[in-house]
Amino acid sequence: MTRLNSFNDLFIFELKDLYSAETQLMDALPKISEAASDQQLKNSFSNHLDETRKQKERLEQIGKDLNVDLSGETCEAMNGLIKEGEEIINLKADDIVKDAALIAAAQRVEHYEMAGYGTVRNYAKRLGHDEIAELLEETLNEEKEADSKLNEVAITHINAEAEYA
Ligand code: ZN
Ligand code: FE
Ligand code: FE
Ligand code: FE
Fold this sequence. Notes:
Elements: H1 7-35, H2 39-66, H3 76-90, H4 95-126, H5 130-163
Helix pairs in contact: 1-2, 1-3, 1-4, 2-5, 3-4, 4-5
The chain binds zinc ion and fe (iii) ion (3 copies).
One fe (iii) ion binds next to helix 2, helix 4 and helix 5.
């Protein structure tokens, strides 16, 4: 059982959780992208896979800067969110209805990441790690952008097409 002896320990603990989350997403996003039918939606997922790779690398860089290994923890929440995503992938459904459901699952993932990165960005600032805070904020902004892109795809056409499927 991990014991957190300081605010810095909590910072590392939260970074490890995010490292696990991004690692799990590297496996999950290609499957989600493959399950999507709409081309614009597929593109959003594969763009975000590229970003996810960079985000994982950013965390590795942060681990190096702090001289800690961020691997070895499991983010159980991301594990659960991905399980729900897999449930949707395996559903029998009209293509466009499935696309709407994939967006619902993916936006949950982005919101979870936004919460996590907002927290560690604040911790990094507090602890005087200004450059690390900037790296974490870059990722935070990508997660927000991914979420709003998904929202836009949903409201500009997927939801409407799904309604009449
Ligand atoms: Zn469409
Ligand atoms: Fe991410
Ligand atoms: Fe977690
Ligand atoms: Fe993300």
